[in-house]
Fold these 2 entries.
Entry 1:
Amino acid sequence: MRLRAHRCWSVLLLAAVTAAWAPAGGDTRAQDAVEPEAELPDWGEPLRKRTQRSKRRAEPRAPAPQPARRSERGAERAGAEPAKEAVEADVSSRNIAITSAFTGTEVVVFGSVVNSRQPSAEAGYYDVIVVLEGMATPLTARRKSNVAGLWVNTQAFAFESVPSYYAIASTRPIEEIAEPALLARHAIGHDYARLAPSAHSVMESQPGELQNYKDAVIRIKQRDGLYIKRDYAVIFIGKSLFRASISLPANVPVGPLTARVYLLREGELLSTFQSRVRLERSGVELWLYQAAMRHPLYYGLAAVLVAALAGLIASMPFRRKPPA
Amino acid sequence: MHIYLPIAEMSANVLLFLGMGAAVGFLSGLFGVGGGFLMTPLLIFSGIPSAVAVGTGAAQIVASSVSGAIAQWRRNNVDIKMGVVLLAGGIVGSVIGVKMVRILRLAGQFDLFVALAYVTFLGVIGALMLIESLNAIQSARSGQPRAARRSGQHNWVHKLPLKMRFHRSKLYISAIPPMMIGAFVGFLGAIMGAGGGFIMVPAMIYLLRVPTNVVVGTSLFQIVFVAAVTTVMQSTENYSVDIVLALILIVSGVIGAQYGAAAGARLKGEQLRLLLAALVLLVCARIAWDLVTTPPELFSITTTLGAQL
């Protein structure tokens, strides 16, 4: 009888220990609403602040005109020019907490076209591209080749910075929206993402190698679900309001994200907007990670202690008197 | 049910890893082995970065051997002096091994090295066990008695200097061979994330001729401490011990081992060894397969070490 009670108690304790992780997490998106805006001074800053401001000042404040046909646009520019379009946007959650329950999440980027001349949501008058980009991180790409029958990493290529995550959503395929030159200038699309090779690796490798390694990095990131491309994922809801839902997978590297919104019309960039998303560990995750990185010795000693205790406790219910 | 692993930086299915821990625990209880050599490859196959698999494996070994070590200690089956000598070697080996993990990770050759180490050791040990158990089964069938092990036979081990008296083991031998064995096992433990009992026990029996009743207790005693040192070192050098993952594996593993041990009591020794040999060779073949077949993706990427924080 005593043994059974003992066993029950320990099993319960273990269950409690394992279960303790889950409730510690939970969805912290509720916190987003109360997060003071003052903490994000760089919030909602247009990409090209100065040029836009000066242009706006020069333009007369006119009421939004009726949607103009293509032939009329030239005339408008020459004469009484209508208010220029601009894009304003925001993200559904500015702070995303990685807790023990984190299994990936969705970020909704929504915004509106100021002074929209679009008659309806279906008109397709504007093109919007939304880019959600992760932190630039150093990375090494390696290539295997067959050495005496074994597949061994033989060549390496270092990148000084590669976006850890890159999701792009647009109203239609970006190749149809704009010229490659514009896409490249603004680092729009996986092929134009800012993959900066290290000077050392460039010097040491063959001329064509860089492109091979770049392609490989993009291919592997796509396979891992970290580079995402979704054509037609930006949807206009009204004549000016649009939204795009972008998924952050569970394996998303932790770090700040930048959301960039581009408003285009017939291959011409009209306006841009930028905002940030914080992606941080929180709760137990943060505590454990910081302990492991900042105090590795204590973390290691604690790990040994916890492991030994867990081993002893888990085997306690099964302990019998040694056989005679 | 998913849980985010703080060091592996991935969301893992708790039930999958609980099942994995229980399965490996069951097998380790069944065969009386540590199970690290099965756990590490399984973790790598399931997507855990190999360095984290190896580091976390060390913590898991502490847990799975500590209760056994205490039980053996109570039964006075530990030769402490021998254990300390093995441990001294083991710590040296572990230090070298952990440093080597770091160097190999930076060079991008760690995965290859782990795979080669596993293929070599699992291949050799699996083959030896297979032959031995088949012979044992055959001789049991034909009714011939097995040749008794000759005791007291001297080999080259006994000619080395620095002789010490090990009372519990009733041995008077040089301290160099146990140190070397300890260092070798400590090194492997750091690189392979395994306790190394599968090397330690045969080495103590056949090379040092330690009496069998002391072998298991002494090797467990040494493994607990070497694994503890390795865990701390992997934390400080490679930041690769995921305590959340370790806890999941420990809890299920220890419980699985108890049921495994109960099941093992109903099987014959030779049959058990044959099964274990088959299992070891299977894991070996699986790892070797990945090394020789053309991988679907020739490229791989790693975030540069120390880039985080």
Note: Residues 31-58+83-282 of chain A form one domain.
Entry 2:
Amino acid sequence: MKDLKLIDHLAALSRLSFEGEEKERMANDMESIMKLMDTITEVEISEADYPLTAEGGMELLREDEIKASTPVEEILSNTKGKLYHFIAVQKLMD
Amino acid sequence: MNLHLKSIKELRGLLDGGDITAQELTQYYLDRIEKLDPTIKAYVTVNEKAMEQAEAAQKMIEAGAAGPLTGIVLGIKDNICTKGLRTTCSSKMLEDFVPAYNATVAEKLEKEGAIFIGKLNMDEFAMGASTTTSHFGITKNPYDIERVPGGSSGGSAAAVAAGLCVASLGSDTGGSIRQPAAFCGVTGIKPTYGRVSRSGLVAFASSLDQIGPIGKSAKDCAILLDAISGADEMDMTSRESESVAEFMGQPIEGTVIGVPKEFFGEGLNPEIKAAVENAIKEFEAMGCIIKEVSMPSLPYAIPAYYLISSAEASSNLARYDGVRYGHLSKAGETFDERLVATRNEGFGDEVKRRILLGTYALSSGYFDAYYKKASLLRRRIRKEYEEIFATCDCIITPTTPNVAFKIGEHSEDPTAMYLADIYTVTVNIAGLPAVSTPCGYNSEGMPIGMSIVGKAFEDGKILNLADAFERKFNYILNDFCL
């Protein structure tokens, strides 16, 4: 998979970017990793034998309940861009 | 008094008997950290409020309200949220993140009066097997500081081995408790998926992650596991379960132990093979029944694990945009440019590789070939475990194919590190409990670990087996750091 265009595509989907030597190195690493991952393509296995049903126990959802939670001030204590009680970000559109 | 060599039960006796106070025990560990951690580098953050916790614990002891862990000094892996105490995931992305809430496990331990001495180093976002991908530097193996402690819970294992805390919490997504426990000569259990709440554990791969204890012995791990277990409304996958302490000391005669032949084949270091086979003979001598079994899908476990875990990671790590918390880049004119710059600067190489792999496995045109295939293999591996457990109570395998490797040994080839997870990942894929306990040393004096894997929610049985072996093996933690 040493495919620099594919690295660009995956990086765009992942909100990352790679340039120059870093892109080259990442492409080399991914080529080696995909070689290992490709070993599963040789496995003969079908959904008929192993149905992909929901994981056991995952159906146990609790009822929504309105109750007090962490104060807004504490939640915002890690936010760098703050304006009053709001999170400030760069404008998304003109 | 060498307090760092004492078990939780022994320390409980000293604290309750008034021989030492919680403050004295805390100061003892703070002094050891000051003396030894500049070499070991197990801690990312030492808790400045540890002594305040110790004072509160001492009041509980004096009031006769102590629980098993009141006044006991614990280290916490740095991906478990601790209110008011920095939680970095060993990443630049969360370098200055101070949680506004406790993880459920931290809340339970705090209520019991345990002391959090500090936050322990790890591979960045728990992605790695060496604790060399941390933004805060490399943790060293206390047995040989030129070697890695394993990972991702390398700080948690090294701190216990070096006597820098009584016991610790780690997390295990593909072996991240058991492998460092094996490398550092201590005991660690990855609990059954659902036994321990994951609320407040920074998510890596949510269907595989589980918090668990690392200690000097199976008995210490059992005490800590009971303290953190239980259903939690904040984690819908958590369940109530039997106390593991009740299993400790039960007779093990007649236990049927499966030995999967695929775990003892090509790639396994001969010294590790011999040590684990000797341990199996010890179990036979203790009255257990040994039976050869098979797991034919083992060769495909590594790609199945890495595809599933990376797919989940690529989704879980999408939240890191620097907006609500975490690193925020100063570069970029637009929102999107700043988002990309933030993630480029905040994540290290291994995290980026996993995000790319996960994105690839989930992307249009590749989903069926990779993610779906891995999910089917996950079902097959579970089925193979069910077949084994139809006739066996547990299985025994090596924890790792080799002992702790030298720092930098696998730095050029990420796949070499991935392949070393071969004996641990199937347990996470199947959601089972597994404990790694020391079973010998190689010719260079490095520890060797074996894993005992049990049926779901039979964590107590495998801890009891590990305890029986530890007593027979007469395992005593080396005081090598002095």
Note: Residues 14 and 77 of chain A are 27 Å apart (CA to CA).
